[in-house]
Every structure is written in C-alpha cells, then in structure tokens.
C-alpha cells in the first residue's frame, strides 16, 4: 500500500503534473495545446522547461506516451494515466465536498 501513496505524493509534488494529466483527459494534445490548457487552468504561465520536465517524468512513469508523426506530434494518456486521472479526479471531488461541508 505505501507504494501508491508514494506515487500520489510524487504526482502532487511534481509541478503541474496533475494539470497536464487532466489536460490530456480530453484526448491527445500537442505540446503547445497542453501548455495553453495548463496556463488557463492555473492562471499562471507554464514555462517550457517545466512542461518538458513534467512530460518527461510522466512518460518515464508510464502515465503518458508521446506519438511522433511526419509533420506533427502529440501526447496522450496511457491506460495507467487514464486510471490515475480517475483516481485524482475522485480525490479532488472528495476534497471539494469536504471543504464545502467544513465551511
């Protein structure tokens, strides 16, 4: 059981990782689209270096994959990434319900 908590903590510590995952929940996205989506969602500019590092980390942990085509490329969730997005979404919903109830 500790492994899943370690993994969730790593996701939350990794700058903008969960925002990138949620951006990809809608389907394959190009690098610039992810950058725009995350910037809009957070209200803070997502720097290229941060996004590149986050995408690389998510790929290394088998949450996303990069597809390169002749004139284009995109990122998409793996099966593990889809499962993780569902789990993170439920945690976020549970937190919002609790926070609303406690206010």
From TrEMBL:
Residues 19-94 form the HTH hxlR-type domain. Transmembrane segments: none annotated. It holds the Pfam family HxlR. This is HTH hxlR-type domain-containing protein. It comes from Phytohabitans houttuyneae.
